[in-house]
Amino acid sequence: MQKVTTPYRLGAVKGREHIWIFSALILAVMLALVLRQLPEGPVLTGIVEICRFVGDVFKQALQMLIVPLIVSSVIAGIASLHGMEGFAKLGGKTVGFYALSSFLAIVVGLVLVNLIRPGLEDGQPNEVIKAAFDESAAEAGEAEKGKIEGAGEKKASDIWDLFKRMFPKNIVSAATDNGQLLGVITFAILFGIAITRLPVHEIETLRGFFQGLNDVMIVLTRWVMATAPVGIFALIVPTVYGTGLELFAKMGTYFATVLAALGFHFFITLPCLLFFLGRVNPLKHLKAMRTALLTAFSTSSSSATLPVTMRNVQDNSGVSKRTSSFTLPLGATVNMDGTALYECVAVIFVAQVAGFDMGFGQQFVVVFASLLTSIGVAGIPSASLVAIILILRNSGVPYADVAPFALLAIDRPLDMCRTAVNVFGDSCAAVIVARSEGEELEEIRA
Ligand code: ASP
User: Is 415 in the pocket of ligand 1 (CB under 6 A)?
Assistant: First the structure.
């Protein structure tokens, strides 16, 4: 089987990028906490607005890379495979792993939310949280309401919508919409397969073109990431500054439940899968992925992080372009372990607060719905709230239209953590599939 190779390691990180990013993150949190103590005024607003502006520019620069990167890497990756046999096997393993890891994540969430029962107090629905739900809904302006509702209709009106979105009627407009990336991927996969069906002499130039395009995109990613410490600093300051602490105090147990479940999946489940399925040293892989994890944490967007994830997995963990080009773009769009887990915990939590008794059967439906909807959730900030509304409504839970406002108010820190889990899950899939395809991965082998 022919392997796509690059004569040199484009964008290999030899410096201390992650240390710069981490320091920027800590500094940003400290600055934001200091700013929160100061009286409001034009100077303070100015600082926060400048940070917001710089952060948006950085995030958009990363997003600008997504479509050409996905298209070139998926097409170049598949076009390098000879015949459909290898591709079908690779696809089957990847999708199988995605389903397994998301299912395990949801089960952890399900067990913890039933054990800790964050929505109850002394076995009864927690009245303080219920009041907080009503308050946040009343505070949320019409614009906020429209945002959640609109997103719901457009991105996840029903599960079948997902399959429709795999085949967009217009590939160019799909490429301009973050929620339609799945359509772009389907198109790129079909395009890549079609290339393998033509005689080699006819498609040599085309194949070289996509390979070259992909190499250029990797260099561009390196350039954008050179500004990451500043960009991430600017993203974090307004986030921490604007986060009210009152609601956190009321929903502290819920917060802790989500973090504990995400932590379990991140530190126990995924490392076990890495070790037992891939014979990979989890610590070494975690170290290899640190820049991508910090970027995911700061941007709350697995799509925006994709260029960095690809670079880390290829350069630091040593996964071939062939495997990573297929598993990672697909994973960033359809494989969201953290999101799936979060949806399940959030829905059962709201049911507990609302005093809605969810029996085993209904919880099973929630597990299944979380698994399916997490596939359709876009890799952008707070996207899973839409899926949560959908599941709550379908399950008939009271408060389905009110609770999401309270969840939205405290969503950002949880989103940062679940996005990091999503990205780590994708990277684990790439590594495990690569090992099963016989790749050595000297850098991270157990
Ligand atoms: N922000 C998440 C991601 O981009 C999606 C979500 O759970 O809201 O992966």
Answer: yes
User: Is ligand 1 within 6 A of the CB of residue 300?
Assistant: yes
Q: Please classify residue 114 by burial: count the beta carbons closer than 10 Å to its beta carbon, then call 0-12 exposed, 13-18 middle and 19+ buried.
A: middle
CA of 441 to the centre of ligand 1 (A): 29
Name the pTM for this structure.
0.81
**CA gap 308, 66 in Å, rounded:** 10
Domain layout of the chain by residue ranges: 7-436
Ligand 1 centroid distance, CA of 377 (Å):
7
Radius of gyration of the chain (CA): 22
Query: Ligand 1 center to residue 181 CA distance, Å?
Result: 14
Rounded to the nearest whole angstrom, what is the distance from the C-alpha of residue 43 to the centroid of ligand 1? 33
Is the CB of 417 inside a 6 Å radius of any atom of ligand 1? no
With 0-12 CB in 10 A as exposed, 13-18 as middle and 19+ as buried, what is 52? middle
d(CA 166, CA 9) in angstroms, rounded, equals 33
pLDDT at 126 over 70: yes
CATH topology of domain 7-436: Proton glutamate symport protein (1.10.3860)
- Residue 377 CB less than 6 A away from ligand 1: yes
User: Per-residue pLDDT tens for 232-262?
Assistant: 899 888 888 876 566 677 788 999 999 999 9
